[in-house]
Amino acid sequence: MYDRFVRFARYDLRSDELADAAVESTFAELMSHWPKVAVNRNPTAYAWTVLKKRLIDQGRRRRRTALPVDDHTLWGLVDERAGRDDPLEALALRISVRNAVRQLPERQRDVVTLYYLLDQPTTVVAELLGIDAATVRSHINRALPRLGRFLDLPGTRSGRGRTGS
Predict the structure, then answer these.
(1) Which end of the chain has the smaller Cβ count within 10 Å, N or C?
(2) Termini Cα distance of the chain
(3) CB neighbour burial string for 19-36, b if at least 16 within 10 angstroms, e if fewer
(4) What separation in angstroms does the CA of 16 have from each of 21, 23, 59, 78?
(5) The pTM is what?
C-alpha cells in the first residue's frame, strides 16, 4: 500500500520531495490514531482519505510558495514507451492528458489516475478507494467520454456537448 500511495502522491504533486513528505505524514497520522484505524470497516479506504487530505494541504502550500517541478519528475512525464520521436511532443501530450484528468470529478479522477496512469488493477483501485470493482468500472465508463471531450478527440463532441456515436 505504501508504494501505491507514493506513486499516486508523486503523480499528483509532481515532486518527489513533497510526495514523500505527504505520504510520511499520512502514515504518521495513521499510526497516531491506530486504535481508530484498526477497527475501521475499511482501513485502506480510511488511509486513502487521509492521504488525499495531505495532498490537498501540500498542493495548497505549493501554490502559495510556487515551488518549481524537479527535473526528475518533469522528465518522468515523458513517456518513452509512447514511441514518439520528439520527447517534447510526448511531454505536451502527457500534460494535456493530466489537465484533462484534473477536470474530472474527484472520484473519477482518482480511478482514472490509479487505473490508467499508474497501471493499478481494478481490484487494487477498488480496495484503495473502498468501493466495489464494478463501481470502478462504472467510473471509468463515465470518465472516458468526458476525457475525450476535454481533449477534443474526434467523435466525442455532438451539438449538445454529449459524446457522439
Answers:
(1) C
(2) 39
(3) bebbbebbbebbeeeeee
(4) 9, 10, 13, 16
(5) 0.69
What is the mean pLDDT for each group of 10 consecutive residues in the chain (165 residues)?
Answer: 90 87 93 89 90 86 56 53 64 81 92 91 93 95 91 63 39
The set of cell numbers assigned to 41 is 470497516
The Cα–Cα gap between 9 and 15 comes to 8
Read off the DSSP letter of residue 117. Answer: I
Cβ atoms of 8 and 112 closer than 8 Å: no
Contact 139, 111 (CB under 8 A): yes
Rounded-to-integer distance, Cα 132 and Cα 11, Å: 24
Radius of gyration of the chain (CA): 17
